[in-house]
Design brief:
The chain is an alpha/beta fold. The chain has one domain (7-485): Amidase signature (AS) enzymes. The chain is 40% helix and 13% strand. It contains 16 helices and eleven strands. It has an eleven-stranded mixed sheet, with helices on both faces. A hairpin with a 5-residue loop joins strand 10 and strand 11 (441-447).
């Protein structure tokens, strides 16, 4: 195999990289070196990574090359580098959760998802930047401000910020993020890539710091839908170490791709597609996406989820309370001044939620979930934008709420598209659906029935092949110039 460095291979999809590796046209060592070169060049500006495992990744790449050359392939991910959000435990490698409090925390074991990816031959290349404790609202990032590769002055979204940046920039073949209310899907949307929140229970959470006990999931971020299917295949399935994982058999996700979507009934969610105050360019792109789906033979059915708007306060009342009570004695009381102001104020507020309010909110979540499942019983999947706004400028995304309008724009409308599907614990996929006039990514979201990831991926893949937005990549050569202007 060629041991040289060809930076263009970093931009290929994981599926294409895998094909080249298994045809022995590309060395895993060459691929890892290419990704490390991207990290070295662009991470100082974009801050995708907190910890880079360069030496270990190169050693693992050499081992993968030897195995593949000897005919001992472990599957399509063998020899491909991956990164993980830095709230997943890695044996012997620090896991900071994006916080000063855990700057030197080194676990003694890997999260199950990492164990499974390594067993599939994938190579851990580094730990990716995130909002502190993975909960959003961070003001000052201890490991540097993550920036959007399409325009560094803009937000890459969170909380799995680095996981989205790294994939978009070819710093890795794929990443794992964590999604409570949209922390996989929003970074996928903002960075112009594909991100999946699987069904709650489809993927083990063991070894991940999961404070949102009833909502947190781990999901893949990739450059295309087929890549996403490959990563999901490797990490899905029951894990005895996580009592909340389901026992359903894992289907062949890749086999579902390539089939047409003619005759499938897709529910267009009125409240999530056309709310007052949504961005006009997002809505125009959504109309174009619907036309593409209809041209492919999908049957579009307008549906209503009137309770969806309640998902945002209900999720924050419950998940924020879960997180806050778990952190109260551990860090809030003992490390108040070491926590970011955005983290500590949000979690302090979570500690003040009365138990009666929390329990009523949990019952309210059931109503929202039941409404979504009832609508899904009459359609094959639901579609809407992943976010109702393009990625905003970093300084404008601070979650300061000082008026009713700010509450509507910064809290409710920014979350209303993703939170309902988190609350329903159903699979939801984000994928590119166009760009603004200024070149910022826009994203389509497809949600399905519980454990129906195969159909969600099939629909996403069909749209992706028809629209071709997924082929767009950030102009990395312009990054340093743009970064100097931020």
């Amino acid at each position: 195999m060629n041991q040289g460095t060809n930076p263009s291979i970093s931009d290929l999809s994981a599926t294409e990289q895998s094909r080249l590796i298994h045809s022995k046209s590309l060395s895993p060592v060459e691929l890892v070196r290419s990704c490390l070169a991207r990290i070295e060049r662009f991470n100082p500006l974009l801050r995708a990574y907190i910890t880079v495992c360069a030496d270990a990744a190169l050693a693992a790449a050499r081992e993968a090359e030897s195995e593949i050359m000897a005919g001992r392939s472990r599957g399509p991910l063998h020899g491909l580098p991956f990164g993980v959000k830095d709230q997943l435990y890695t044996a012997g490698i620090r896991t900071t959760l994006g916080s000063k409090v855990l700057a030197d925390h080194v676990p003694d074991h890997d999260a199950t998802v990492i164990t499974r990816l390594k067993a599939a031959g994938a190579i851990l290349i580094g730990k990716e930047n995130l909002h502190e404790f993975g909960k959003g609202g961070t003001v000052d990032f201890p490991h540097g401000q993550p920036r959007n590769p399409w325009n560094p002055a803009h937000n890459p979204a969170g909380s799995s910020s680095g996981s989205g940046i790294a994939v978009a920039c070819g710093m890795t073949s794929g990443s794992l993020g964590e999604d409570t209310g949209g922390s996989v899907r929003s970074p996928a949307a903002a960075n112009g890539i594909v991100g999946l929140r699987p069904t709650f229970g489809r993927v083990s959470r063991h070894g991940g710091v999961m404070y949102g006990w009833t909502a947190d999931t781990i999901g893949p971020l990739t450059r295309c839908v087929e890549d996403n299917a490959l990563f999901l295949q490797a990490i899905a399935g029951h894990d005895p170490a996580d009592p909340l994982t389901g026992t359903r058999a894992v289907p062949d996700y890749r086999a579902a791709l390539g089939r047409d979507i003619r005759g499938l009934r897709l529910g267009v969610v009125r409240e999530l597609c056309w709310p007052e105050g949504a961005n006009a360019e997002v809505q125009a792109a959504m109309k174009a996406a619907l036309k593409t789906l209809e041209d492919m033979g999908a049957v579009l059915v307008e549906v209503s989820l009137p309770r969806a708007k309640y998902a945002v306060p209900l999720q924050m009342l419950t998940s924020d309370s879960d997180i806050a009570t778990m952190m109260l004695h551990k860090w809030l009381r003992t490390h108040w001044h070491d926590l970011d102001v955005g983290t500590r104020t949000r979690l302090a507020a979570g500690c003040l939620i009365p138990a009666a309010v929390y329990h009523r909110a949990m019952r309210g979540r059931v109503l929202v979930r039941n409404e979504i499942l009832t609508v899904l019983a009459n359609v094959d999947a639901l579609v809407c934008p992943t976010n109702l706004y393009p990625p905003g400028r970093i300084e404008s995304s601070r979650e300061t709420v000082d008026s009713e309008d700010a509450m509507q724009q910064k809290v409710l409308l920014r979350r209303i598209s993703t939170y309902p599907f988190s609350m329903a614990n159903v699979p939801a996929l984000a994928l590119p659906m166009g760009f603004t006039k200024s070149g910022l990514p826009l994203s389509l979201q497809i949600a399905g029935k519980p454990y129906d990831e195969a159909l969600v991926l099939r629909i996403g893949h069909a749209y992706e092949q028809a629209s071709l937005w997924v082929r767009q990549r950030p102009d990395l050569e312009a990054l340093n110039r743009e970064g100097a202007q931020t």
